[in-house]
Amino acid sequence: MRRTFPGPAAVALTLLLALPLSGCASLQSAATEVGGVRMTDERPVRQGGTLTVALQSDPDRLDPSLSQTLVGRTVFAGMCEKLYDIDAHGRIVPQLATAPPTVSADGRTVTVRVRRDARFSDGTRLDARAVVGSLLRHRDLPGSARATELAPVERIDATADDTVRLTLSRPYVPLTAVLADRSGMVMSPAALRTYGKDFTNHPSCVGPFRFEERVGGDRIVLRKDPRYYAADRVSLDRVIYKPIPDGAVRLANLRSGDVQIGDQMPPVDVRGALTEPKLQIFNSPSLGYQGIGLNVGNVHGTGEKPGRIDTPVARDVRVRAAFELALDRELINKVVFQGMYEPACGPVSPGSAIAPGPPPEECPKRDAAAARRLLAEAGVPTPVRLELKVSTTPESSRLGQVIQAMAKEAGFEITLRPTEFATLLEETDAGDYDAFLIGWSGRLDPDGNIAAILGTQGSMNAYGLSDPAIDALIAQGRSERDLDERARIYGELTRRVNDRHALVYVYRQKNYAVATKDVAGVRIYGDGLVRVTTAGYVR
């Protein structure tokens, strides 16, 4: 039986993404076991205080149009609200919009109504014109990481003070989910006029906290915004985000009380926190993936026209297939991640309610002998030399070493190059790499895990991959309203992407955070963001 929505396309576009993620548990306040799901702590909190959040890395640019990192999204969650957000059940809910969008019968006109009671941190009033300006900037700004997400939007108009109309080139089912992430963040038009490209150093949005200062590599400081439309719900005076790449150091700072929340905690440190009476653990299923990106055509930069790279990995898909066959996903999970994650072999989580990806048990098994045969068929001299860029965290180093050892047995000689996170992003965007460890925090709609990343000249396609069949399937998936047909399309898209081996999916993590027990009101959902709007210290 085909799953369809009754009524016109308006119902499909509005309700499709209200489906919960299957397997995503409802709120639990008492789960303490590592395998349990705990996303919030609802104890009452007192007014005042400063909360310090330790991040895995230093965020990139604090500009919603240009940002590419999960840690950046976590900071934005404290100061830049979106038209829509997600809740604990994986459902899309209005944030700066007042209701779900309404959609015309042909699926090509989408209308969004905007709050009337909100102001940006610089005092400018939020209205439809401000929304239009931000959406156009997200779509059209050179280098925008949001360009692919908003490419189907042909026109954006303010038809009233609180009403925005988007005209689409074709029906675009993922649009609501897109507007629940950075493409839906609205920036102060006054700040954009004043600072232009330097907005990243003077960000101004609507949010519970406003930007106060940034000291590169040390801290980002936000202060409670008295102009926020729900300021009475905000208890903290300040939030400080500190990059601390080493999970063990983040845990030590939690134990000492120098930080109150440790984000993206590695499994070994999560296990250590379980024995600490003054610490609590939050976790949620992940919508994303972690893997290895291979440069197959990025010669001009991310999002630019692919070119020819004269390396065995770029020239011959059999070499890339051999590299993937060298990997033992289950052993990687056990050795590097204490068995607390799960193998991954596709861009979409198996827990997706829209188009579930392949479960861990269906992931290819390691076969070093088959890998060596493929290299022989490709006629490449062995060992095949490859430089793998890894970040400077201990877990990335361990993962790199395990991959290095596995690949050696299959005919590869891998050199590890530890690289500071921001530099790694710059170099991979520029195409200055052979291979690198890549992570994606995930989106509710499968399109958000694929189109910008693997579509030809996608705004986040750092691999230089170009495949007309992939592009055609992306276009079909974006326009298709029938859920069963969408699931079929994304299943085929996953197979096609895996056949190209430009992005090798390795594991899917859980979102673990550790907090001191005197902190409550923290929320961590499937997108992995640490939400601090209602956080505070226990009364």
Would you kindly provide a written description of the structure presented here, covering whatever features stand out?
With 539 residues, this protein is α+β, with helices and mostly antiparallel strands. It is built from 16 helices and 24 strands. The strands form six sheets. A seven-stranded mixed beta sheet has the order 9-10-11-2-12-20-13, with helices on both faces. A hairpin with a 5-residue loop joins β3 and β4 (92-94). α9 packs antiparallel against α11 and α15 packs antiparallel against α16. It is globular and about 65 Å long. The termini are far apart. 54% of the residues are buried. The model is unreliable at 1-35 (pLDDT under 50).
What are its keywords?
6-stranded mixed beta sheet, 24 strands, 16 helices, 7-stranded mixed beta sheet, alpha+beta, about 550 residues
Secondary structure elements and pairings:
Elements: H1 9-15, E1 45-46, E2 50-55, H2 70-79, E3 84-86, E4 92-94, E5 102-103, E6 109-113, H3 128-140, E7 153-160, E8 163-168, H4 175-178, H5 189-195, E9 209-215, E10 219-224, E11 238-243, H6 247-256, E12 261-262, H7 267-274, E13 279-284, E14 289-294, H8 312-315, H9 317-325, H10 329-337, E15 342-343, H11 368-378, E16 384-390, H12 394-409, E17 412-418, H13 421-429, E18 435-440, H14 451-454, H15 468-479, H16 483-500, E19 503-508, E20 511-516, E21 519-520, E22 523-524, E23 530-531, E24 536-538
Parallel strand pairs: 2-11, 2-12, 16-17, 16-18
Antiparallel strand pairs: 1-24, 3-4, 5-6, 6-8, 7-8, 9-10, 10-11, 12-20, 13-20, 14-18, 14-19, 15-19, 21-24, 22-23
Helix pairs in contact: 9-11, 10-12, 15-16
